Amino acid sequence: MLFDWNAVAAPADVRDLQLSAPLTLTGEGLWVCLVSSGRCTASLPGADPLPAGSALVLPPQTVAAGHLILSYAPLLLEPRDSCHLLCAQITGYAGGQLLAALKELPFLAKGETCPAAAELLDRLAAEPEGHSRARSQLAYALLCELSDADSAAPALPPLVQAAIEDIRAHYAGLYGVEELSERLGVSKSHLVRTFTAAIGIPPGRYLTRVRVEAAQRLLLHREYTLDIVASLCGFSGANYLCRVFKKETGQSPAQWRALTGRTLQAGLSPEETLREQEMYI
Which of 61, 111, 182, 206 to pair with 87, CA 20 to 30 A apart? Predict the structure, then answer.
């Protein structure tokens, strides 16, 4: 073989989804999801901004029919009503280049700015898996179509964007919303009012979620005690971490660590993980 199409763009997974329960898409590469009917929210639980592109990780975004979602994994999709999606996971360096160019994640695109994307996704879903060259060519054509996609998400107010970036960069050392408002040069009441109107939750709650997400990542390293995890994530101690973690996730840190460890070792899918979790409740 003189040229490997899969090294450029390859559809690692294609799914036709009737979304009735939360679903997490996993794996490497770029996920492209077309919402063909209904509405869902898209978010990146436990994600940090990309170090190379300094992409802004947004809070959960509501996506309506006719729009596309572009993101890396894990991508959490939650139905707001009866929702249908067509999703493709694209690996290869062309997909990596498009992903690196995104300035916010998940990136929501207007369907009308890339009208051929829906047809290409349909053709990818219909193409037999054995035809790797044809599938790779379709994946590359889809990336070319998406290269001109325009953002469908309204721009966040500059104050809110600055607050999110500050929280994600300094969550371990932030004393609270008072210190955050001082750093941004505004009153606490103005920050809370503006942030809540744009994001849907106050900045203090957003800070807590970011700290819990950081704790989840550290809990994957079993050599870290709860006291160490708490100190690295901005919690006053292990007991406070446990209370907040349980409130946000429904599990204690020990339960989350044990379940995640079993999942990683067994290579379970998100659906299998949920079924296993239910067995231990």
Answer: 206
Strands 104-105 and 56-57, how do they pair?
parallel
Which residue has 């890339």 as its token pair? Answer: 114
**b vs e for 195-218, b when ≥16 Cβ sit within 10 Å of the residue's Cβ?**
bbebbeeebbebbbbbbbbbbbeb
**pLDDT tens digit string along 114-160?**
888 999 999 998 888 766 788 899 999 999 999 888 777 666 788 99
How far is residue 80 CA from its own chain's centroid?
17
Q: Say how far apart CA 77 and CA 69 lie, in whole Å.
A: 10
Beta bridge partners of 258: none
Query: Read out DSSP for 166-235?
Result: HHHHHTTT---HHHHHHHHTS-HHHHHHHHHHHHSS-HHHHHHHHHHHHHHHHHTSTTS-HHHHHHHHT-
User: For the segment 160-203, what is each residue's pLDDT rounded down to a tens digit?
Assistant: 989 988 998 899 999 899 999 999 999 999 999 999 988 888 99
Determine the distance from the C-alpha atom of residue 267 to the mean position of all C-alpha atoms in its chain, rounded to a whole number.
Answer: 20
